[in-house]
Task: structure prediction
Amino acid sequence: MNTVMAILSQLFWGVTVGALTITFTAIAKLLALGGAIAGAAYGIMRWIRGRAG
Result:
């Protein structure tokens, strides 16, 4: 019975760590994408304002 509990515990922690890793990776990618979009928008706005003045 202890062997079964040990295997289940290992599976649980593996799934938990895997899920957390995937979640944090997705959050990091979304933040990077948002930063890239914000940076591009900022650059375009500066370019437009530079041409107008």
